[in-house]
Amino acid sequence: MKTLYKMSLVSTLLLSSAALAQEYPVGQPVIENGMEIQGVYLQPITMDTEEGHHHMHHLPATESDVHLEADIHAVEDNPNGFAEGDWIPYLVVDYTIQRVDKEGSKAQSGTFMPMVASDGPHYGDNLKLDGFGKYKVNFKISPPSYNKDVMFGRHIDKETGVAPWFEPFDVEWEFDYAGTGRKGSY
Fold it and tell me: pTM surpassing 0.85?
């Protein structure tokens, strides 16, 4: 009976860990304006991008090399009222990525979509890269007040108010891209 229990436990652990995709950081987390910003990539993923009257355009997983993400969460004493670890909603996160070790490589840029996955909410999108090599990625992070698609109120009274929104800022990393492993299993 103990052997059956152990086999069941091992199987459960193996299956649950196999369901998670391997994330690759593009650099060290950056702490700025009361937030921790971490860039990561993983294998391209399939997304549901049609809901009601909204339709988001993105590159299908079958035509992509990576799913690039900006994981943005509040740090302790966030001045805008978010608790430590909270995901920050309604940001505008623009990205630019370019291979830097190949002459003639063109930069590509866009705006990440907010989305949710089994490991929580983030900003991201699928991208086609310019092969294996060294890349530079830049995220321009703008506060909810820059989001033209949604109004996100902020208390400003003495008793319950929070600090004004931050000014847009950039974070940047260089990283080596050597693939993602098992493409399409996430």
Answer: no
Distance of alpha carbon 114 from alpha carbon 122, whole angstroms: 6
**Quick one: 23-177 is in which CATH superfamily?**
Periplasmic metal-binding protein Tp34-type (2.60.40.2480)
Q: Give the span between the Cα atoms of 36 and 108, in whole angstroms.
A: 24
Domain boundaries, the chain: 23-177
- How deeply is 183 buried, as exposed, middle or buried, from its count of CB atoms within 10 A (0-12, 13-18, 19+)? middle
Helix (H, G, I), strand (E, B) or coil at 63: helix
Q: How many C-beta atoms lie closer than 10 Å to residue 178's C-beta? A: 9
Tens digits of per-residue pLDDT, 89-139? 999 999 999 999 999 999 999 999 999 999 999 999 999 999 999 999 999
| Residue labelled with tokens 């003639």 | 104
Q: What is the largest CA-CA distance in the chain?
A: 64
